[in-house]
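A reminder from the course coordinator: this example appears on the midterm review sheet, so study it carefully.

Given structure:
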């Protein structure tokens, strides 16, 4: 039985029975490691909706497409250069401007360091057959997905680009940066910047479009706040403030017809926010280091959190109870990707990427529980 059908059936039961059946469903899920691709540190992963491809952005500046069915590298290219830095003597915190970016490195005794211009976000834009990449040099680069040739380079920010978000229907992309700005780009107008959103007081770590109100989006910042914005206004609608340290990640989700947000922080917790009352309704505690990435599965009643403690934790979305702790030996976990109708979740870590298949205890895919 399809999971959505089963959930509709149990809605007919009294609330306590409904919660019981959902709890049993979550407890019956199995998480099976299906494919591991070792590599340098992976800062971003994305899934192609029609091809068995994982797009991985690496801290080294490389971008790879891995075929998880054939378990091989499909394509790869270098998105950024690594400038060499030479002949510095007993200097600390050297600041060098490269492509309008301040790069800080510690050096001593004429030691030669190579600064890797990291790629922290890469996304498929499927309807244009593009890959878009945001890097530490402040540039956004657009590539043809077939040829891997660069078709556009944009001087977007004056500091590290942390996050890119693609609008589901309009020709828009958001970028967020350590320059504390969020920018809205329109690729049908030649990638012009339509809006600049100001208000955060520290690095803007992630942006996420609201799937139910496509004119709004949320942002997470190391200033410890989540801000909600309209695309046609440079000032935030409202601010959510509850974490004790900086916030790394943000995502929208629905519980019935009610909208919620979930945020992950350097205070080692994730918080669930009621979007309408603008209040925190639950704090998920258990990680022993920074929470780096989160996702709420679109078809299963689970929340997944990732952390620098090297674990992935699975929570029951109905009662927020911790149900499973996963660890794959790839050290810190930085990013997660999933898709509706897709029985796999992908994690990017310090030492590579792991594909995990979610199934029920009887062996069927999670989307057919």
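Designed residues:
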């Amino acid at each position: 039985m399809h999971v959505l059908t089963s959930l509709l059936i149990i809605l007919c039961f009294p609330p306590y029975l409904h919660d019981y059946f959902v709890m049993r469903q979550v407890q019956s899920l199995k998480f099976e490691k299906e494919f591991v691709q070792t590599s340098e540190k992976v800062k971003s992963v994305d899934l192609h909706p029609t091809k068995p491809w994982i797009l991985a952005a690496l801290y080294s500046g490389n971008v790879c497409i891995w075929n998880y069915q054939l378990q091989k590298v499909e394509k790869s290219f270098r998105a950024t250069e690594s400038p060499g830095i030479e002949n510095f003597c007993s200097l600390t915190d050297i600041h060098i401007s490269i492509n309008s970016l301040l790069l800080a490195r510690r050096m001593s005794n004429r030691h030669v360091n190579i600064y890797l211009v990291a790629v922290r976000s890469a996304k498929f834009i499927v309807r244009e057959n593009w890959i878009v990449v945001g890097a530490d040099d402040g540039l956004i680069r657009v590539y043809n997905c077939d040829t891997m040739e660069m078709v556009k380079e944009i001087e977007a920010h004056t500091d590290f680009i942390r996050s890119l978000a693609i609008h589901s229907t309009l020709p828009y992309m958001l970028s967020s940066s350590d320059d504390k700005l969020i920018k809205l780009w329109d690729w049908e107008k030649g990638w012009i910047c339509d809006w600049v959103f100001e208000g955060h007081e520290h690095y803007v770590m992630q942006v996420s479009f609201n799937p139910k109100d496509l004119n709004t989006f949320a942002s997470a910042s190391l200033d410890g706040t989540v801000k909600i914005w309209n695309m046609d206004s440079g000032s935030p609608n409202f601010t959510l403030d509850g974490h004790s340290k900086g916030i790394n990640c943000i995502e929208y989700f629905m519980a019935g017809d009610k909208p919620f947000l979930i945020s992950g922080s350097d205070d080692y917790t994730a918080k669930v926010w009621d979007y309408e009352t603008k209040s925190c309704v639950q704090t998920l505690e258990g990680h022993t280091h920074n929470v780096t990435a989160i996702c709420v599965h679109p078809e299963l009643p689970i929340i997944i959190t990732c952390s620098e403690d090297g674990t992935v934790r699975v929570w029951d979305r109905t009662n927020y109870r911790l149900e499973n702790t996963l660890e794959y030996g790839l050290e810190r976990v930085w990013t997660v990707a999933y898709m509706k109708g897709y029985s796999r979740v992908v994690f990017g870590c310090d030492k590579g990427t792991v594909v995990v298949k979610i199934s029920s205890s009887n062996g069927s895919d999670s989307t057919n529980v």
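The longest strand covers residues 30-38. The chain has a mean pLDDT of 86.
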